[in-house]
C-alpha cells in the first residue's frame, strides 16, 4: 500500500511540475492558486506526518491525509474545482520514451493531455502514439480526444517536423477554448495539437 501511495504522489507531482501558469489556472482552478499548487500536497484537509516502513524495512516519513488512499481520492471532496480526473505516466519501452499526462473532464467529455518534452521530440514515436490512442479508448479513461502538448523550447526544426508528422495522422493545432468558456487561450510553454479518438 505504501508503494502504491508513493507512486500516486510521485506521478501527480511530476505532472504538475510540467504545468505552466496557463494550465494551472485552467485545469486546477483559478479560485485560489496559492492553495492549489498541488492536488496531493496542499489539500484542504488536515495532514499529519506518519512513519511508514518501505519494502526494505527502512522507515520514512510520509504525509498522510485523513481521507481514502490516494488512488481513490475524489478531489471534489476537498473543495478543489479543477477538471483533472486522473494523472498518468506512460513508458514506451520500444522508443525508449517516458510521457507524463493527465485526463481532464469538461461537460461529460474527457480529453487526455500528454506532455511531449524536449527529450521525446525527435525520437521514434510511432509505437507510443499507437499506445496512447489505445489508452484513450479503454473503458476506464474513455477519452474522446488526445491532446499532445509539444514543448515550445525545443529546436524549431524538430518541432516543425513533429507538427507536420502529427498533422499527417490527424492531429491539428488547437487552443484550450473548450475548457475556458470560449476563450482561445494558448500557453507560452506548450503548443497544443489534438485528435479525435
Explain this structure to me?
It is a single chain. By secondary structure, the chain is an alpha+beta fold. The chain has one domain (4-29, 80-196): 3-Layer(aba) Sandwich (Aminopeptidase). 25% of the residues lie in helices and 29% in strands. It is built from four helices and eight strands. The chain has helices at residues 2-17, 21-28, 126-137, 156-168; strands at 47-53, 59-65, 84-92, 97-106, 109-116, 145-151, 172-173, 190-196. The longest helix has 16 residues, at 2-17. Pfam families: ODC_AZ. InterPro entries: Acyl_CoA_acyltransferase (IPR016181), ODC_AZ (IPR002993), ODC_AZ_sf (IPR038581). Belongs to the ODC antizyme family.
Report the sheet-strand fraction: 25-35%
User: What helical percentage do the residues reach?
Assistant: 10-25%
CATH hierarchy: architecture: 3-Layer(aba) Sandwich
Mean pLDDT reading: 76
Largest sheet: 6 strands, mixed
Count of distinct strands: 8
What is the string of helix and strand elements?
A: HHEEEEEHEHEE
Whole-angstrom Rg: 18 Å
**Largest sheet: spatial strand order:** 3-4-5-6-8-7
- Category by helix and strand content: alpha+beta
Oligomeric composition of the shown chains: single chain
Apparent shape: globular
Note poorly predicted spans. Answer: 31-81
Distance between the termini: 34 Å
CATH topology: Aminopeptidase
CATH class identity? Alpha Beta
Can you tell me the number of structural domains?
A: 1
GO molecular function: ornithine decarboxylase inhibitor activity
InterPro entries: Acyl_CoA_acyltransferase, ODC_AZ, ODC_AZ_sf
GO cellular component, one term: nucleus
Family: Belongs to the ODC antizyme family.
Amino acid at each position: 500500500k505504501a508503494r502504491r501511495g508513493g507512486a500516486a504522489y510521485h506521478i501527480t507531482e511530476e505532472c504538475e511540475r510540467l504545468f505552466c501558469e496557463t494550465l494551472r489556472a485552467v485545469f486546477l482552478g483559478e479560485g485560489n492558486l496559492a492553495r492549489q499548487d498541488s492536488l496531493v500536497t496542499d489539500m484542504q484537509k488536515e495532514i499529519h506526518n506518519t512513519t511508514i516502513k518501505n519494502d526494505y524495512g527502512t522507515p520514512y516519513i510520509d504525509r498522510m491525509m485523513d481521507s481514502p488512499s490516494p488512488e481513490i481520492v475524489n478531489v471534489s471532496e476537498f473543495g478543489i474545482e479543477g477538471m483533472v480526473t486522473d494523472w498518468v505516466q506512460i513508458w514506451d519501452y520500444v522508443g525508449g520514451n517516458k510521457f507524463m499526462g493527465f485526463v481532464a473532464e469538461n461537460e461529460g467529455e474527457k480529453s487526455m493531455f500528454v506532455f511531449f518534452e524536449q527529450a521525446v521530440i525527435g525520437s521514434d514515436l510511432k509505437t507510443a502514439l499507437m499506445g496512447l490512442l489505445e489508452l484513450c479508448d479503454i473503458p476506464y479513461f474513455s477519452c474522446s480526444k488526445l491532446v499532445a502538448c509539444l514543448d515550445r523550447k525545443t529546436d524549431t526544426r524538430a518541432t516543425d517536423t513533429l507538427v507536420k508528422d502529427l498533422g499527417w495522422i490527424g492531429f491539428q493545432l488547437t487552443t484550450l477554448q473548450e475548457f475556458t468558456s470560449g476563450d482561445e487561450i494558448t500557453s507560452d510553454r506548450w503548443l497544443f495539437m489534438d485528435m479525435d479518438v
